[in-house]
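Quick illustration for those who missed Monday's session on complexes.
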Amino acid sequence: MSRIASVLLPMPLPEAFDYAEPEGMGLQLGDQVSAPLGPRLLRGVVVGLREAAGGNRPLKPLEALLEAPRLPPGTVEFVQWAARYSVDWPGQPLAIALRGARAPKPRPMRIVALTGAQPARPTPARAKVIEAAAQALSPPDLVRAAGVGAGVVKGLIDEGVLAVSLVEAVASFDPPDPARAGATLNPSQAAAADGLKAMLAEGGFGVALLDGVTGSGKTEVYLEAAAAALAADVTAQVLILLPEIALTQAVIGRVAERFGAEPGEWHSDVPPPARRRVWEAVATGRCRIVVGARSALFLPFANLKLIVVDEEHDASFKQEEGFIYHARDLAVARGKIEDAAIVLASATPSLESLRNAEQGRYRWLRLSARHGAAQLPDIELIDLRESPPDPGRWLSPALVKAMGETFARGEQTLLFLNRRGYAPLVLCKACGERMTAPDTDSWLVEHRYSGRLVCHLTGFSMPKPKACPHCGAHDALVSIGPGVERVEEEAKELFPQARVAVFSSDTAFDAREGRRLIEAMAAGQIDILVATQAAAKGHNFPDLTLVGVVDADLGLRGGDLRAAERTYQLLAQATGRAGRRDKPGRALLQTWAPEHAVMQALAAQDRDAFVEAEMAERELAGLPPFGRLAAVVVSGIDPAQLEGFVQLMAQAAPNSAGVEVYGPADAPLGLIRGRRRKRFLVRADKAVDLSAYMAAWRARVRPPAAIRVAIDIDPYSFL
Ligand code: ADP
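Prediction with adenosine-5'-diphosphate bound:
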């Protein structure tokens, strides 16, 4: 009897395709296969197997069973669940899950080994090489290890005493040692760690919210939980998710120190061959700890027992392009599928997680003080209406004075401004023209380091013109407003003796450069660091005692549902960098609206009052976490066709109790890369299966080829 294999392909296709299993292939669920699609052969995954009933139309046979690790059942189920939840094709999350499997293999390594032949002419140098050759090294490493000239090694190879062979580079991933001693936990840390260990000991799915102020030692606590998970089961795997690549670097170091072995590293800066190594080692269970960014959640874990989502409130966990998902929410779903424990850690948890904790769905473990002698910083507001910076300057006299005192004491300052580049707007003072991107509704941001004007939405860039492209006036283009590069310039002018550096995703363009800057800051080699959020979260800088927030109101402008929450979280994180050791820290927030509830809550360090007020507002409006939202962005090139289609879509929205559909409306960002955009917003009661509703809606309309419909469950962006 022959069998039919359902194969999911990593492509935007609505469902798995059926193929005939060739005689003797012996397929199992999760196998990676090569499947024909039109003229192409694609890597796919077997998600179903059934006996062929007679009389079916003949199916194309599969081309081959690939020699590659099988996707574990939990991964296959998770991929399908994620697609259903996000109302997207299952091939989209599968493509993320297979990213490592499709990466090129690491190149084989050249290794020198002894052949057993004796050298015709033994010398002390040759003896050193022969001794070192026991370690299976590459030729240059052998030269280095033996401390001899390259000619000695070459001579021995020519003589046949040593032979060079190519071996496949297999990552070893030393097993972590959970028995190694960690930090001695203080009593409240120990209580929180016990809470996590109790959850792990119960076994199965469970979620804990590790809610501790900045510097309380949340990392130490969750590493204890990781140790417990690894110790309880020699095949157990642990995943630690972080919102920023810069943060993964710091946590990798702490994991390596705690367990005596490097964890697997997973994010977009990891080179493809290394990614493939991690992917295969995770699938086969050899890699037991992974530290990574959000897409690590799609790795093929063989026996996942614990997922930590560190800085769980962070909006960077939301993937907004391609397959749209929120890694925190999907982590909880994956935990349910894998029967794993989940730890959500934050100093400023999301309202969603706080609500779940309040309602008893999550274990709530709180750490209310910093570890040891460190104290939370004093937070003061600088009212810019009373104490404005000089014209063309961005740092107020009060902040400059505090910076001077800090510098004089040999301590460090962090200036936080969540804006990359030099100036957010360039304008012609002759004709008033604002420099905008050619095909997108956005201002071009000036970058002085590169001398270019850049669109932060699409990456479009052009050299800064000498003359206004509109009126032709020369030397009339002026930079408006500050970005980090401009604040750096000001800090350098104010403190010429200070070592000033800037950290943003443009300046720390890869993980290694980011790590170098963070290490330099931690080692006290920088006096003033001007940083965007890429460096203002999670890190420990022992000599940092002053945090200056250049524009505290920035995130509140053009506010959406989460503007206040996000601003509170970001500023609590940034100010939380100050005062990490025994030296007291200060944070100064420059604001035009000191009376705003967010500023008042920050200054009073009263998170609970802020959360309570924010929750009450959301509850009244039926917004998350009390209700559910979904957004639909419809885009097209031709305005008339787009308008016609969104009207059709509006009529096709199913009537359903507890669901309200708003729109279509022009998106605030009405044009991106030449495509016009319209939006719908859907609000639903908590009990509604919003994914099912959206899927039903989508099934009722068929967009023309030139129109794109993107569904975003639980949107974070309203642009
Ligand atoms: P959080 O993640 O809550 O901000 P961390 O875990 O990074 O806090 O801890 C802050 C700092 O305090 C780190 O430098 C950490 O090594 C140190 N620390 C925390 N707990 C302990 C402990 N029990 N013993 C020694 N050092 C600790």
